[in-house]
């Protein structure tokens, strides 16, 4: 029997008619943070989920990829699917090699399951420290899983909010010092952009990256972080302008360790649903030169997710 799901009350569906971006992304660009949701009838949402989304299928994701001018995707397991990675893996298997994945696994995962996910294109595991989304992974479980995925060449993705970084500092520092793998932070550790870009809260995140050369950051989700919102005011003002100093600082300080993604289909937004075309038009405000844009959208994600493909490097020479 197919399962019927009721969306979380007030759920905002993804925007079906995104504009064509004015900014043309470089050839071979990667949308390095996006999700699929179900469809619920085919890939049921997890019983332990904290929200029930609208469906967002692989076909719809890949149509958006083409519309925005991207070549590849990194599909990140969303918490509404728990540790059931089937929808994400199915998306990878139907991408003609143009998608990699980030899984959520428990310590009960078998080596065969890890191998099968690797064959499908999974290249990392995500641990979520955002309290409204999941119950925390115990720290010993994280270290155990991280040790098991390292031989596969996978990396670790962590998602947390800026207010929680001081409390998580010792643990994250221990992870970064003990793991040879790359650690990717989602959405710049979710800074409060109403605070100063050079204030103590964001400085701590910059220090985290500076102290640990294996830490990367996604400079994604202006729509989640912005207080000024999507409206362009006048003249030179543009959407999500209050996020620019934060993302630009990370891009310019760590140009070889940044990634960008749409975050489509944008789970849990309460205020507005972004036009993904506008999100792409935000990129040149945070990566202001063609070189920075190429690193952010092509070189960095290719080296992390498709390191075996040398062609993209050769094309550059
Ligand atoms: C994001 C952000 C969120 C949700 C998830 O896996 C998820 O459910 O990551 C959020 O609610 O902030 O990156 O998709």
Précis, in short:
With 317 residues, the protein is of the alpha/beta class. Helix content is 36%, strand content 11%.
Account of the 3D structure:
The model has no long low-confidence stretch (mean pLDDT 94). Strands 1-2-3-4-5-6-7-8 form an eight-stranded parallel beta sheet, with helices on both faces. It has one domain: TIM Barrel, CATH 3.20.20.140. The radius of gyration is 18 Å and the shape is globular. By secondary structure, the protein is an alpha/beta fold. The protein has eleven helices and eight strands. The structure holds (1E,3Z)-4-hydroxybuta-1,3-diene-1,2,4-tricarboxylic acid. (1E,3Z)-4-hydroxybuta-1,3-diene-1,2,4-tricarboxylic acid binds at residues 35, 78-80, 133, 159, 186, 263, 267-268.
| Radius of gyration, CA atoms, in whole angstroms | 18 Å
**List of distinct ligands in this structure:** (1E,3Z)-4-hydroxybuta-1,3-diene-1,2,4-tricarboxylic acid
CATH C-level class is Alpha Beta
The DSSP helix count reads 11
Task: Please provide the count of β strands.
Answer: 8
CATH superfamily: Metal-dependent hydrolases
Total of domains = 1
Percent helix range: 25-40%
By secondary-structure content and strand pairing, the structural class works out as alpha/beta
As for the CATH topology, it is TIM Barrel
The fraction of residues assigned to DSSP E strands is 5-15%
The appropriate CATH architecture is Alpha-Beta Barrel
Instruction: Calculate the terminal CA-CA distance, rounded to whole Å.
Output: 55 Å
Mean pLDDT, all residues? 94
Order of adjacent strands in the largest pleated sheet:
1-2-3-4-5-6-7-8
Order of helices and strands: EHEHEHEHEHEHEHHEHHH
Envelope shape: globular
